[in-house]
Write a structure and sequence with these properties.
By secondary structure, the protein is an alpha+beta fold. The chain folds into 2 domains: 55 residues, no CATH class; 227 residues, Jelly Rolls, CATH 2.60.120.200. The chain is 18% helix and 35% strand. It contains 4 helices and 17 strands. The strands form 3 sheets. Strands 3, 5, 6, 8, 13, 14, 15 and 17 form an 8-stranded antiparallel sheet that branches. Strands 4-7-16-9-10-11-12 form a 7-stranded antiparallel sheet, with no helix packed on it. The longest helix has 32 residues.
Length: 337
Amino acid sequence: MSELNNSSSTKRKKKNQMSNKECHKKERLHNDNEGDYDQQHVVVVVDDVIIPATTTTTTTTTTTTTSTLEESSIPPLEDQQADGIAAYNVFSNKLLRQRILHYLPIFTLKRSLMTPCGDAQWIGDTSVLQLTTDEPYINSACWSSNRVRHLAHGFTATFGFRMGKPVPSGHDPRTADGLAFVIQNSRQGKEAMSTGEGAGMGYGGIANSVAIEFDTWRNREHGELDNSHISIQTGGRKSNSHKQSYSIGYAPVVKFRMDDYAPHNVVIVYDPVSTAAKHITVSLDGVQMLKINLDLQVLLRLENNDEAHIGFTAATGQLHQEHIIDYCHIYRLNTSF
């Protein structure tokens, strides 16, 4: 009997000792957690650019036995705060902010940011845009899913295209019709597209638009002057058209073919600030082809007097070719430095 009592007493002592240890352990954990910090990240937005900053608040944290981040990989709190303050100071400086924003695109041809219409499609997993295949009677377009901002204050657009037949064939070697870089704020928005003939190059009939077309077929019945030409077409706030009467700037391309399936590079600059007259220039493969006076805010009805959809259109008719856009970037115009 005494052995049983001694055994029970021993068990109670061990249990009490364990309880005391747990209490001490909890007390140590509580003391260790006092004064821990939970980092809260906030942002400062200046001219649509997000600037990270770091503040701290005191919280109580729970203990974990494992961690996915090593302590040494986390910068000291003082460094994080200093970085946030430095970033804010940089973007508070108007000149520095202008220099930085000048190098940040306001538009990039990227499949996640675009809405294809008609037969437009992406090539593989890339952001190379194929507007048409080498087949007849195709209309297509591809627009920025959201309106692009800062257009009225000036921009520089660069893009590369290929037009033509990828391999020679025994079929008709003639090519048609062409592609266009288009700014539009029509009611159809990102679903706007021409349903007309190939000569319309995918933008014909789109209201409140301006199209810079790269045309590879002469439509004599509509007054076109050359087989290969660049033209700026607009109907103002009414429907646009490929007809020669809608052209506000025209340049023949005679030194080389645009439909040779070789890469060609375009630079479009809209400058509303550097001279008394607002104007736009178009350069192809390093050669300025067009320069005309143009005021986007007067010509078109822009959203918030500054925003519109940007994209590309193309079409084929009885004659056909591939139309491909390899890349496109648009930046703010900066004339202050």
